[in-house]
Automatic annotation (TrEMBL):
Family the UniProt entry places it in: Belongs to the UPF0161 family.
Main location as per UniProt: membrane
Name this polypeptide is given: Putative membrane protein insertion efficiency factor
Annotated Pfam families: YidD
Keyword rRNA-binding belongs to the record: no
InterPro entries listed in its UniProt record: Membr_insert_effic_factor_YidD (IPR002696)
Superkingdom of origin: Bacteria
Compartments reported by the entry: Cell membrane
Signal peptide: none
Protein's membrane topology: Peripheral membrane protein
NCBIfam families according to UniProt: membrane protein insertion efficiency factor YidD
Length: 76
């Protein structure tokens, strides 16, 4: 039963690890934040689970653009 309940969380973390391993190395560094958006997403999902952590990650990714100042933004 626990396997089923943690499946969304594990799937999201696997997708982020795939992105970090295979997609991100081919792109120029562009994250304006510390920790990076993918590090933030992994930490938020591990700490809060798929729903709240996913929400925090999406909110952070939407802030990562050239018009935002960036800076240090840890997971709450």
């Amino acid at each position: 039963m626990r396997f089923v309940l943690t499946l969304p969380k594990r799937a999201m973390l696997a997708a982020i690890r795939f992105y970090r391993r295979y997609i991100s190395p081919g792109l120029p560094p562009s994250c304006r934040f510390s920790p990076t958006c993918s590090e933030y997403a992994m930490e938020a999902i591990e700490k809060y689970g798929a729903v709240k952590g996913g929400y925090l990650a999406v909110r952070r990714i939407l802030k990562c653009h050239p018009f935002h100042k960036g800076g240090y933004d840890p997971v709450p």
